[in-house]
Amino acid sequence: MELALAPETLARWQFGITTVYHFLFVPLTISLAALTAGLQTAWVRTEKEKYLRATKFWGKLFLINIAMGVVTGIVQEFQFGMNWSDYSRFVGDIFGAPLAFEALIAFFFESTFIGLWIFGWDKLPKKIHLACIWMVSIGTILSAYFILAANSWMQHPVGYKINKAKGRAELTDFWHVLTQNTALAQAFHTLAASFLTGGAFMIGIAAFHLVRKRHVSVMKTSLRLGLVTIVIAGLLTAISGDTLGKVMFKQQPMKMAAAEALWDGQNSAPFSVFAYGDVSKGHNTVELSVPGILSFLADDNFSSYVPGINDTNKAEQAKYGPGDYRPIIPVTFWAFRWMIGFGMASFAIGLVGLWLTRKKFMLPQHLRVGDDEVPHLVLFKNKALSPTLTKWYWRIAIWTLGFPLIANSWGWIFTEMGRQPWVVYGVLQTRHAVSPGVSQGEVLTSMIVFTALYATLAVIEVKLLLKYVKAGPPELTEADLNPPTKIGGDSRDADKPMAFSY
Amino acid sequence: MELHDVWFVLIAVLWIGYFFLEGFDFGVGILTKLLARDRSEKRVLINTIGPVWDGNEVWLLTAGGATFAAFPEWYATLFSGFYLPLLIILVCLIVRGVAFEYRAKRPEEHWQRNWETAIFWTSLIPAFLWGVAFGNIVRGVKIDQNFEYVGNVWDLLNPYALLGGLVTLTLFTFHGAVFVGLKTVGDIRERARKLALQLGLVTAVLAVIFLLWTQVENGDGKSLVALIVAVVALVAALVAVNGGREGWAFLLSGLTIVAAVAMLFLSLFPNVMPSSLNADWSLTVTNASSSPYTLKIMTWLAAIATPVVLLYQSWTYWVFRKRIGTQHIAADVAH
Question: What pTM was computed for the model?
Answer without folding.
Answer: 0.93
